[in-house]
Amino acid sequence: MSQTNSIMNTYGSPTIEFDHGEGVWLFDRDGKKYLDALSGIGVCALGHAHPAVTKAICEQAEKLVHTSNLYHIGTQQKLADKLTAVSGMDNVFFANSGAEANEAAIKMARLYGSNKGINTPKIIVFETAFHGRTLATLSAGGNEKIKQGFGPLLEGFVRCPYNDVDAVKALSEDKDIVAILVEPIQGEGGLNVPDADYLTQLRAISDANNWLLMLDEVQTGNGRTGQYFAYQHFDWLPDIVTTAKGLGNGMPIGACLAQGKAAELFQPGHHGSTYGGNPLASAAALATVTTLTDAGFVDNAAKMGTYIQDQFKQKLAQNDKVVDIRGLGLMIGIEIAQPCTELVQKAMDRGFLINVAAGKVIRLLPPLIIDQDQADTLIAVICELIQELD
Ligand SMILES: Cc1ncc(COP(=O)(O)O)c(C=O)c1O
Q: Which pTM value belongs to this model?
């Protein structure tokens, strides 16, 4: 069959194209306005065309876009200083995406094992996890469907059910295990929120076994859950944390942060990236992180997240199609008793962009700048759509 589109067919055929955006709003080519409750899949935390980010990008682009990491990049240094201050971590490796940030973490875990004389290191990963689409991150992920056709996958991962502390504890005897890689809340897997003490228990098990605790905060990071990183809801640090998405507000950038013994692992020659943390991406990310933290948007995520969840719980309490309403901050899921992917188009027809994860969980990741009026219109339309389900 001859190919009619010069773009490879990995995303189907999107029917809509946006022309411009402002704040929580996107405008299509016909001028129709949409409330973006997905933020480019959790990316545009400051909404669209945020003036601080636009200014930083424009000013940097006029001066210098790229030099490579063979030369010192002052803006990258400032970004690293800011991120370590905000996170409590010691140092950062910059990549271009979430998958690449996770690749760095996986390599660090293997190196940690190798330094201890473990030649076949294993990392504990989880069912329904998502860590990216590169071969290592695909292998670490728990979605079997998206792995089909891409074997042989990478060895060195042991899989446990998510939110099951005993399953992880049971692996304590395995001397090849070097690390745990886990999402604080699973996003793509269906917005799965673990028990309140789950992550703290994983921290304790990692300490007891001398494993690295590696958190994938590609989606939960950068204020999404109402703290800059989700682990900051607790009083401990991970050894490694990865992030991307909201970090650059749309400029591609990822980061792998480490502290303590993990911060010493990578030495010259161990890892690299031509673009990672280049001047343009770093300028955008520095403006994003600074605005997110200084302008109170992380607190807004906590406040609006609680408000939106409470409203849904009140308004949908009697609805027997709703199985569960869950989330943290502005990472909100409404689990429906039946498959409901058709709601994405129905919401779009009414001027709202939403997503459905795992086939039956309405996933909302609105910009962290959302205000109460905007939240109210979103809540109203989601409730309507659920009422109208067959
Ligand atoms: C938790 C998590 N990790 C990793 C990734 C992969 O990030 P990227 O698409 O930037 O490679 C995603 C993307 O959705 C994610 O949600």
A: 0.98
